[in-house]
Amino acid sequence: MTRLKNKWINCKKNNLNKTIQIFEKKPNTDFRQFQKLDIRIGQILQVEKIPNYNSFFKLNIDIGFKKIIVVCNLNGIKNLKQIIGKKVCVLANIKPKKVKGQESQGLILLVKNNLGKIIFLEPDSQNIKIGLKVY
Description:
Layout: E1 6-13, E2 16-23, H1 31-35, E3 39-49, E4 56-62, E5 67-73, E6 87-91, E7 97-99, E8 102-104, E9 107-108, E10 110-112, E11 118-120
Antiparallel strand pairs: 1-2, 3-4, 3-6, 4-5, 6-9, 7-8, 10-11
C-alpha cells in the first residue's frame, strides 16, 4: 500500500496569496486489502516529548486489548495535557518501526486542517468504546 502524497502549492490570484492542495492520484485498491488494516479506537494515556526533535512525541495509547507506543509529529499542539484522554483512530497492525530513535507500534490517523495544523481524526461519539474496530 502506498502513502497518500499531496502537494501544497502557493499561487497568486487577484493579488491574494492562496495555498491550494493538489492530490496525487493513487491506484485503486480492493476491499480485501482494506480489510487487512486493523484500525481501532484508542485512548491517549500519556504524552512524552522526544528530546532533540521539536514536534515529535511518544504517545502511550490504550487500544483495548493492549497498550502501544506511537511516535508522531504533533506540530502545533501547544498544551499536551489537552490530548491526554482523547480518543483517536489508530492503525494497530502495522509493523513496528523506529521513528526518531523510538519504536513506534502503530499509526494515529491525522490530517492537516485548512490552516496547515495537524489534527486528530476523532471518533464522532465519546460513547465509542476503546478497542472497537473501525470498518
